[in-house]
Amino acid sequence: MTILFIILFLLIFISSLCYFVFYVFKELKQLLLWYWIPFVPTPDYKISNLIENIELKDGQIFIDLGCWDWKILQAICENFPKAIVIWYENSWDPYKLALKRKDKYNLNYQVYKKDFFTESLENATIIYSYLLPYIMARVWKKIKNDCHKWTLFYSNYFQIPEEQIYKIIHLKNNQNIYIYKV
Ligand SMILES: C[S@@+](CC[C@H](N)C(=O)[O-])C[C@H]1O[C@@H](n2cnc3c(N)ncnc32)[C@H](O)[C@@H]1O
């Protein structure tokens, strides 16, 4: 009887431990470094500065490379209701959140659970990103390869190495947004 009890206890203990390790690992991976880009959204004050520095005519395309929260695209949809707003996101959690917010706030953005490196960015008027320094050269290569000469690329905080900046949105504490023209 005692042995049975000990085995049962050990089984429960080991499965709880496995669940805990799996759960912590999953959460950490999602919260910090999913696809090696952390889940950090552009702060609200930057979104208002971004909106002031964007021009989008009816039918023109805005693409956000990686979504995390929906606030940027909510702002774009509300300020430019006739623009086409597209989001690519390769992680499940932000993607599902984007779908929920789209319904909840009745927003007209298109959201795709895709790796933006595999999608054509060809007709974008404005491409926005908040990624990390190590990936900027690769992103820029993709944009130059896919896009027209008039496409503008807005990069929050991170510059493209050795590339000429077209314009800078100067923000407090050097938290600039850099604009590049293809
Ligand atoms: C730092 S967050 C920025 C989110 C949003 N653009 C913003 O500024 O609030 C970066 C997002 O890009 C996503 N991401 C990273 N690499 C990606 C890729 N190759 N394709 C699609 N999404 C990607 C990450 O999952 C993450 O949600």
Give the key terms.
7-stranded mixed sheet, 182 residues, binds S-adenosylmethionine, alpha/beta, 5 helices, Rossmann fold, 7 strands
Briefly characterize the structure:
This protein has 182 residues and is an alpha/beta fold. It has helices at residues 2-31, 44-52, 71-79, 92-104, 133-146, and strands at residues 61-65, 84-88, 110-112, 126-129, 152-156, 167-169, 177-181. The chain binds S-adenosylmethionine (SAM).
Could you please describe the fold and organization of this structure?
The chain is an alpha/beta fold. The chain contains 5 helices and 7 strands. The chain has a 7-stranded mixed beta sheet. It folds into 2 domains: 2-31; 44-181, Vaccinia Virus protein VP39 (Rossmann fold). The model has no long low-confidence stretch (mean pLDDT 89). Strand 2 (84-88), helix 4 and strand 3 (110-112) form a beta-alpha-beta unit. The radius of gyration is 21 Å and the shape is elongated. The N and C termini lie far apart (75 Å). The protein has helices at 2-31, 44-52, 71-79, 92-104, 133-146; strands at 61-65, 84-88, 110-112, 126-129, 152-156, 167-169, 177-181. S-adenosylmethionine binds at residues 34-35, 37-42, 64, 66-69, 72, 88-91, 94, 115-117, 130-131, 156.
Number of domains: 2
Measured between the Cα atoms of the first and last residue, the distance is 75 Å
Q: Please give the order of strands in the largest beta sheet.
A: 3-2-1-4-5-7-6
Largest sheet properties: 7 strands, mixed
Q: Any idea of the CATH class of the largest domain?
A: Alpha Beta
At the fourth CATH level, what is the homologous superfamily of the largest domain? Vaccinia Virus protein VP39
Q: What Rg, in angstroms, do the CA atoms define?
A: 21 Å
Q: Any ligands, ions or cofactors bound here, and which? A: S-adenosylmethionine
